[in-house]
Design a protein that fits this description.
four-stranded antiparallel β-sheet; mainly beta; 2 helices; 5% helix; Methylamine Dehydrogenase, Chain H
């Protein structure tokens, strides 16, 4: 967009107006400053010879600083910050009383947590998690997190990873009587360094690789510290947020070689480098990528080590990066070493280098300033142009070039121009961003915009801004404008970092008409600036760069003095640089001039007044035992002093006392009193139990045994009365004889114990009493008789022990005169029984027994405490003694009488299926019992029978008879047509063919007569032959056939019934869930 000409004209007029007013705004009257305060003059950029800065140098102030947060110093001494604010490193308070804000800032915002009382700030240094700033009087304030001591305030961190500490600005605890002249930003983790006005360098914060340079290394793992061989941990703070980081929360002094001091310092990622006054270079700390320039990659070096540049070149400034380092030499060359994988060594390659190597620049290019990012570097040329090289994440090189596939800039192995037509005077690189200021103070930044790091209002934007953009909002009139310090104070056209004599006149001289001349006595100059000696100082010589402080014992009470004045007698001065002398305090004196201290009045003297030249001697009765006494002390009661000028009092002797203050003599103790120690105020009155016979005694005499004295101040003791005694020396009272003792005499030291069998029941007794019947006393010294215990008795007086009741007797109550017989059913088994015990079931006892009798066999005792036994009833028995019950007769047995000890088995032919019976059961007809003691009878088998009862066996069926079923009480004859020749059979045989049986009960068959036949079996007769066919046989034969058929059917029917019964029995013996209907028929 083209700007109209009228707008350009208006802007030009406005800038001119600002440049005219700015010098007036910067005016500051410092005419009343003391000697230690150095006058500061602030200029606009237009009034300077060569404005700008070199980061970390004592010759200029870093007025802009960048990591992921950016900060700039304004001309009015205030600071504005922008960008990442997670740790509160922007220092902004948005809500009063709520601490630091953590919101990212898109535009520069005033660091309002810095109070006016903290001074006018001239330099700022931003780190990863905190920010530090230097004010005009050399104080350093830091704010943000303190996890590994990076605030340097001496307070050990106590936070954890659930509540990160975010601290408002606090003062860094620099060594006493020092101030800082320069502070360093950090491209690494969390450590800071400062160069002091006494030429020392201090560092604080993270020290897990020895990067603080004091010879220690705070190694940590998981929040616990450990020592590396050769390195002490010192006092370290172990981060609860990052368990592998640790550091020191109070600044420590860097251990440079003797006669070496730093003029420029740069803190990298866990390592540090510094330029010395002779422009030599030293580095220390982590060295895993050879970033210390030692030609090796040893892991750690906790002591500064010399870095050698090629051809013995010396160094003007230094820039420590992430894992590499670059140096700007005094002849305007740049050398780099360390990790080079991103082209950060600037030699056209991605190679690493363990020693310094030359950066490739155009022949005409003259670098005058250098700065380091994490893995990239930028320089300023004498033309004001900027060039950068190395990694180009998010466009940190500002080259405006092409992007890679991830929308990042492409790494550069050679220095590449920063895009745009800018004339920069100062430049500072950060994590992935770079900022610079132009000659008019305008601030520009480029690189990663995501968290507001560019300060131009952009936030949350991914990718990169790879060209410089104005910080702030210039359209709204809010563009950030910083101030810059002078880099050529002597105006010789040489920047201070390259100038071997950067100031116009040497110290001790000042310029008059462009000629350096010595300053006069009473004044001094530093770098050509004249100052008069202040109050308390003087300078007797000309051409000096300092004033002398008035020495102790002297003073200077005006300015521009060339001599000091001595303190007069009665005054002193113990400090140097004072404007007056001090009057001696009371208790002190000085008797000469130029006294450096007041003298204490010696003991025996005092001085109540101030400003005195001598001390006063103490009076008699008084003393002073301390030097510097302001008054004399009266001798306290118990002491005295007859002499003057003494430092103590005399204690009253033993046997004497002093009862008042300031005494000059002591008094003797009277009778009845004594003094046993020195220094008594009063004599001790003889205490009760004691007495004193003479005056001046050192002790009292105790009353002897058998005597006492209840009053104090006495001269004798009293004998003990009867019934009383005094057993100790020095007794105040006599003691009545206690119960159990007595005393019939006087003046005794003890009482007599009552003898066994006697007691004394009252105190103060003069005699003893015998124990009555039913009681006793077995020991001496008893106050009452003991009742005879249950189970014992006492039947006389004066007994010393009870008598146990004999066995068979007992006594339940105490104090008895006799014992009682045990009742029936009870017993006492030993002497001294207090109770009769009941006989247990199974036993019994008569009166007066010592044991119980067991019940006899055949008898029992069912319950306890019985006096006799009982007989077992019929049907029961008991074979053992001592039984509580009888046993029932078991099946197969019986008991027919009382008091039996055994049961009787049932005889053969009888049985008994139940218990407790008095007789057995006779076996039934058809049954038998073959053995004695049977519980059941047995059925006669088929073929046998028994018609009688009480039988032990069955009878076999006779020949011609049979028994077809078990349990039969009779036999059956064979029917006609059948016979049975054998005994004990269960059926009969049918008559064979040609045979017959004509009657019942046949034991044999009859053969047919000759000529007769019988073709059929089981017939009752034969068939006559043809010649004789009688009518009767013809009629009888069909009848026989019919009977046979019916008989046969009868047998078939009986067999079927038997088979069915058998089947039924077999099924009954089985466990089944289903029976077919056919089997139920």
């Amino acid at each position: 967009m083209k700007i109209p000409q009228t707008a350009k004209t208006s802007v030009t007029i406005f800038l001119c107006f600002v440049l005219l007013l700015a010098p007036m705004a910067g005016y500051n009257d410092n005419s009343d400053n003391n000697l230690e305060e150095i006058s500061e003059e602030y200029y606009t950029l237009a009034s300077m010879n060569m404005p700008g800065f070199q980061s970390g140098s004592i010759y200029s102030y870093d007025t802009i600083s960048m990591y992921q947060t950016g900060c700039g110093v304004l001309a009015n001494g205030e600071i504005e910050c922008w960008g990442d604010n997670f740790f509160g490193q922007a220092g902004v308070i948005t809500t009063p009383g709520q601490g630091l804000s953590t919101n990212d800032l898109n535009y520069p915002t005033n660091v309002n947590s810095l109070q006016n009382s903290m001074g006018h700030f001239v330099e700022v240094a931003v780190g990863q998690q905190s920010t530090c700033a230097l004010n005009s009087i050399g104080e350093v304030y830091c704010w943000g997190t303190e996890l590994v001591g990076q605030l340097g305030n001496g307070i050990e961190p106590t936070t954890d990873n659930t509540n990160l500490s975010r601290h408002s600005p606090s003062l860094v605890q620099l060594p006493d009587n020092t101030s800082a002249v320069s502070i360093s930003a950090s491209t690494g983790n969390n450590h800071r360094c400062a160069i002091l006005n006494n030429s020392d360098t201090v560092c604080w914060g993270s020290n897990n690789w020895g990067q603080l340079g004091d010879g220690t290394a705070c190694f940590a793992s998981g929040g616990e510290g450990y020592e590396l061989p050769g390195y002490n941990t010192g006092i370290c703070s172990y981060s609860p947020y990052d368990g592998d980081d640790s550091g020191k929360f109070t600044p420590v002094i860097v251990q440079f070689p003797d006669n070496k001091s730093a003029i420029s310092i740069s803190t990298g990622n866990q390592f540090t480098c510094a330029v010395m006054t002779d422009n030599s270079l030293y580095c220390w700390g982590k060295n895993d990528y050879s970033q210390l320039g030692q030609g090796n990659s040893n892991s750690v070096n906790g002591i500064p080590s010399l870095v050698s540049l090629p051809e013995n070149r010396t160094v003007a400034s230094i820039a420590a990066g992430g894992d590499s380092t670059c140096a700007l030499s005094m002849d305007h060359n740049v050398y780099c070493w360390g990790a080079g994988g991103e082209g950060q060594l600037g030699d056209g390659s991605n190679d690493s280098n363990s020693v310094p190597g030359l950066v490739t620049l155009e022949e005409y290019e003259i670098p005058i300033s250098i700065t380091a990012g994490t893995a990239f570097y930028c320089i300023l040329l004498d033309t004001g142009a900027a060039k950068c090289w190395g990694t180009n994440w998010h466009g940190g090189l500002g080259d405006g070039g092409a992007l890679d596939d991830f929308n990042n800039g492409i790494s550069r192995q050679l220095p590449t121009n920063v895009s745009g037509n800018h004339t920069f005077i100062g430049i500072e690189a950060g994590l992935q961003n770079t900022c610079a200021i132009e000659a008019n103070g305008s601030a520009y930044c480029w690189g990663r915009p995501y968290d507001g790091s560019l300060g131009n209002g952009m936030s949350g934007v991914t990718g990169q801004i790879n060209y410089p953009v104005r910080v702030g909002n210039p359209v709204a009139g809010n563009g950030l404008t910083t101030y810059a310090s002078e880099q050529d104070p002597d105006g010789d056209g040489i920047l201070t970092i390259f100038d071997s004599n950067p100031y116009l006149c040497n110290s001790g001289y000042h310029q008059i008409d462009n000629v350096c001349v010595e300053v006069s006595p009473g004044s001094y100059s530093i770098n050509g600036v004249v100052n008069v000696c202040d109050y308390g100082s003087y300078q007797p010589l000309a051409g000096q760069s300092y004033c002398l402080y008035a020495s102790p014992g002297n003073y200077v009470n005006n300015t521009n003095s060339s001599e000091q004045m001595p303190c007069v007698a009665g005054t002193y001065q113990n400090d140097s640089g004072q404007i007056s002398c001090i009057e001696n305090s009371p208790g002190y004196y000085t008797d000469t001039q130029s006294a450096e201290s007041q003298e204490k009045c010696p003991t025996g003297t005092y001085q109540p007044n101030s400003g005195s030249q001598d001390c006063i001697i103490t009076d008699a009765g008084y003393f002073t035992n301390n030097r510097k006494s302001v008054s004399q002390t009266p001798c306290p009661a118990g002491t005295y002093q007859p002499l003057m000028g003494q430092n103590n009092c005399l204690s009253a002797d033993i046997g004497y006392h002093v009862s008042s203050l300031a005494s000059i003599s002591q008094d003797i103790c009277d009778v009845g009193t004594y003094s046993d120690t020195l220094g008594q105020i009063e004599c001790n009155i003889a205490s009760a139990g004691n007495y004193v016979l003479d005056t001046g005694q050192s002790s009292e005499i105790s009353c002897s045994n058998g005597t006492y004295q209840p009053d104090t101040g006495q001269t004798s003791c009293i004998p003990a009365s009867i019934g009383h005694y005094v057993g100790l020396e020095g007794a105040k009272f006599q003691i009545p004889c206690s119960v159990g003792t007595y005393q019939p005499g006087t003046g005794q030291s003890s009482c007599i114990p009552a003898t066994p069998g006697s007691v004394v029941s009252e105190q103060g007794a003069t005699g003893q009493s015998s124990c009555p019947e039913g009681t006793y006393s077995s020991e001496e010294g008893q106050n009452e008789c003991t009742q005879a215990e249950p189970g014992t008795f006492v039947d006389s007086i004066g007994a010393t022990e009870p008598t146990p009741c004999p066995s068979g007797q007992f006594q339940e109550i105490e104090g008895s005169l006799n014992c009682v017989e045990t009742p029936p059913g009870y017993f006492t088994e030993s002497d001294g029984s207090s109770e009769a015990l009941p006989c247990q079931p199974g036993t019994y006892a008569a009166e007066g027994q010592s044991s119980c009798v067991a019940a006899d066999p055949g008898f029992f005792v069912a319950s306890e405490a019985q006096s006799n036994q009982e007989m077992c009833l019929k049907g029961t028995f008991q074979p053992d003694s001592g039984a509580s019950s009888c046993l029932k007769s078991t099946p197969g047995n019986y008991v027919s009488k009382f008091a039996q000890s055994e049961q009787t088995p049932c005889e053969a032919g009888t049985f008994q299926p139940t218990q407790q019976n008095t007789e057995c059961i006779a076996a039934y007809a058809g049954q038998y019992v073959p053995e004695a003691g049977s519980m059941s009878q047995s059925s006669c088998q088929r073929g046998t029978y028994q018609p009688e009862i009480s039988q032990s066996e069955c009878l076999d069926a006779d020949p011609g008879n049979f028994v077809s079923s078990s349990g039969a009480s009779s036999q059956f004859p064979c029917t006609m047509g059948k016979y049975q020749p054998d005994a004990g059979q269960f059926d009969c045989k049918s008559a064979d063919v040609d045979n017959f049986v004509s009657e019942e009960g046949a034991s044999e068959q009859t053969p047919c007569k000759s000529g007769d036949t019988q073709p059929t079996t089981g017939q009752t007769r034969c068939i006559p032959g043809k010649d004789s066919i009688p009518i009767i046989p013809i009629l009888v034969i069909p009848l026989i056939v019919i009977v046979a058929v019916y008989a046969y059917k009868y047998r078939i029917s009986e067999g079927s019934k038997s088979s069915s019964d058998k089947e039924t029995k077999e099924w009954d013996e089985r466990t089944i869930d289903y029976v077919p209907a056919s089997l139920k028929k």
